[in-house]
Design brief:
Elements lengths: L5 E10 L2 E12 L6 H5 L1 H10 L4 H18 L5 E4 L11 H9 L1 H7 L4 E8 L11 E10 L2 H5 L3 H12 L3 E5 L5 H19 L8 H9 L4 E6 L5 E10 L2 E9 L9 H16 L2 E3 L5 H5 L4 E10 L5 H23 L3
Parallel strand pairs: 3-4, 9-10
Antiparallel strand pairs: 1-2, 2-3, 4-11, 5-10, 5-11, 6-7, 7-8, 8-9
Length: 335
């Protein structure tokens, strides 16, 4: 298993002279990165509570309830996700994305009753691919030039000063990570993302994260005390010219004044600077990311459903139309 809150089967589709990995969720599916109805339903309602106020929040949550129910009725979760590692942000090499978008017929032959969903297209990097078949889903934050946009910022310099006072050792882990270290990171992640934020975030099996480390999809950066105890960590996922931070966690029992979250995010900033990469900081914590030089962009799902019957295509189209009407309100949350 890969997730505790969703059953996912992985397959491969042959495209020209290579195989594309495909993630196919099963009937048990309560995670927003694998379930469209969860993303627009309970996960969206939790975000609305955090970002909006009445009366607009009440109207948005009512729409979410309606479209979640309609979506489940119209089987919007009968999908496949090409090249999806079950991370919150999917990254693509440009040539891979071109092949995926051109492979509609191959996907339709292999999975004739499944829509094809391309995740994590954004208005910064994929504008040419964003059209009527896309759902605006969330606002993400990207730093294009670490040296120019982030490092000179006062808040970044304060983060650096805080890190120097923590007396924690930085370690980078790949496929040779110990079981104790990996388990400690998973515990910190679950405490933050599942217990504190939402049970609909991906609940990773430790064995699946080890698989991603062994395949060099992820690496983990830890901050450890003198006894080797992991006090904070972030996972890094690089693809092409961009780095993302799909998982992080920190010891929430320590004082907030110590700035463990800030120190953890600084690890990603420093790694992006070292590698000469841009940094995708995903969604949330808008003020924090803006003050460190990140800019907001809409993120989309692209849905390929031309091979499906009309009643299913109508469901995707109608929900997408409403989401596009709501997009300006979503954009205002980042202002």
């Amino acid at each position: 298993m890969s997730l505790k809150n969703a059953d996912v089967v992985f397959g491969r589709v042959e495209i020209k002279d290579r195989h594309l990995c495909v993630a196919m969720p099963q009937s048990f599916n309560a995670c927003w990165v694998t379930s469209l109805s969860t993303a627009i339903g309970p996960m969206a309602r939790q975000e609305i509570d955090r970002e909006m106020t009445p009366p607009s929040s009440l109207a948005a949550k009512a729409l979410s309830q309606v479209f979640e129910a309609l979506g489940r009725l119209l089987r919007i979760d009968d999908v496949i996700f090409p090249e999806h590692h079950l991370l919150t942000t999917s990254l693509y090499h440009p040539e891979d994305l071109t092949e995926i978008l051109a492979a509609g017929d191959a996907f339709a032959r292999r999975y004739p009753d499944k829509a094809v969903v391309i995740r994590s297209l954004n208005a910064r990097d994929h504008l040419a691919h964003i059209g009527p078949g896309c759902w605006p889903i969330r606002m993400i934050w990207i730093i294009d030039d670490i040296a120019q946009d982030c490092l000179p910022r006062r808040d970044t310099q304060r983060d650096t000063a805080l890190l120097s006072q923590l007396n924690l050792k930085r370690q980078v882990h790949g496929k040779a990570i110990t079981e104790n270290t990996l388990s400690a990171c998973v515990d910190l992640y679950r405490e933050l993302y599942l217990s504190t934020y939402s049970k609909f975030n991906p609940d990773y099996e430790t064995s699946y994260l080890r698989h991603l480390l062994e395949e060099s999809v992820l690496e983990l950066v830890t901050l450890e005390d003198s006894a080797g105890q992991v006090e904070a960590f972030c996972a890094l996922h690089a693809c092409g010219d961009i780095l993302s931070v799909p998982l992080l966690g920190y010891n929430r029992r320590r004082s907030q004044a110590e700035g463990l979250y800030r120190a953890t995010m600084l690890q990603a900033v420093q790694e992006a600077q070292t590698r000469g990469l841009r940094l995708n900081l995903s969604a949330g914590a808008a003020a924090f990311k803006r003050h460190r030089g990140a800019k907001p962009y809409m993120e989309y799902l692209l849905i390929m459903d031309g091979h499906l019957p009309y009643w299913r295509r109508w469901g995707y189209a109608m929900i997408g139309r409403v989401l596009r009407l709501m997009a300006p309100a979503l954009e205002r949350t980042a202002s």
